[in-house]
Amino acid sequence: MSADMVALTINGTDYKYPAHTRYEQIAADFQPEYEDEILMVLEDQRIRELHAFADRDCCVTFLTIKDSIGSNAYLRSLSLLMLRALKDVAGEDADLLFHFTTPDGLFCTGRNVEITEELLSALEKRMHEIAEKNLPIEKASLPTGEAVRLFRDRKMYDKVQLFKYRMSSWTNVYRLDGYVDYYYGYMLASTGPLKSFRLKLLKDGFLVWYPAHYRQDSDTDGTAPGDLLFQVQRESKRWGRELGISDVGDLNDVVVKCGARDLILVQEAYFEAQIAGIAKTLAEDKRKRIIMIAGPSSSGKTTFSHRLSIQLTAHGFRPHPIAMDDYFVDREHTPRDENGEYDFEVPEAIDIEQFNQDMLDLLDGKTVSMPTFNFRTGKREYNGKTLRMGEEDILVIEGIHCLNDSMSYRLPADCRYRIYISALTQLNIDEHNRIPSRDGRLIRRIVRDARTRGTKAEKTIAMWPSVRRGEERHIFPNQEKADVMFNSALIYELAVLKSYAQPLLFEIGADSPCYSEARRLLKFLEYFVPITPESIPGNSILREFIGGGCFDL
Q: Does domain 228-546 have CATH number 3.30.1120.10?
């Protein structure tokens, strides 16, 4: 290939383009083949914005809003559009704080501006006007010191604080019609694709609705606004503000100036008070004989169940932990997914009838032989372990399907107490850049899988979309059935996980399909000043992932 041409493989066919052609122009040639607008490209395994240039031979994959990369870029660009429009309708001092997402949109609150129906109507109208103009979203790479001066002059002090700890010499900033901001992640090339959105007043803020085929970064894991999980996330944000830690810059300041020991102890005390409150509630209602704990992957269910059991013991109970995984059907009876692989995420992977019968027998005071599932042989085994319940005995059952009514359909409702646990990240990177909860859970899982199973980060990342689909189908739809919800995210945890996750992510090579995700996570972890684990108590939920815990087997 001549130096003035590049060879691009697109949808299995080879094409030639003049070197230094913008991907925006190339995407326009293929747009008729796509139902949704092309928003981004993958250049081999590297994410590229449409205003980037094609300068080398490579395989190109176009991304739309139906891809998680495209969906996340759409939301970031929509946020920039909204901030630009806000200055026009409410003045230069008006600002927004971006908090967390639900299936119905991104929850925001205002600063130096009152959020009303009238404001949202004017804001939405102005956003559509800017979108219709198809204005460019311009990207500039500035020396970090220059970026800091730029944001200080614009009174964006959260970014000044964030960049104080940034090691990179250069920082990307984005400009839209004179408004400049910083974003963690890739952006659209222009406002033209930002056609679909709505603003809806909600409590002391509002929701920004936008279309998404697969809301991979949903913080509230499928809850509807105003429901229990939404309130738990708001409470976590409030508690972070009380500590004076709303974003990564705040956390870094605490670590550098004060050390993390007191912060860790306060966080653990906060958790212990919540767990003790749950135990007290159970002590006041003697009808509850079966506690069912559910939650998505890497939410800390195992450690939580141990800590709850200790609190229950302090209240005079004799708790008995039961893992629903011990009721897996034998491997040859395990359902398979659409790819022919064993699907352990579906309820049918559990022997529901045997589980219900055993629990009923225990409630009736009978002696029950308890199973143990042998994951090596793929068989359920009975090794002489029995259980019989007395007046002070209580069952603590942990499993991803524990809130699914089909799993306990024969058990009396008044004997069950249902707990939902998830790690809902309360930190922002800065006021305009959220940290999706799924990133925190993924990093937890990468660290734990490597430590306990010898699984490489590449495999964990490759499996993650399948895990998420299983959660969307079988866990999140049942979360609002919980009697209580517990947010297991520790405000300091990503600063600890950084040192464990980085070496694992660096192992992923440039030829891996997981390379772009690994690089994204590595870039994300750069924001944090690391915390060493010495001060983390042995019963901390974080110990379930990094090891050294008092509940480790």
A: no
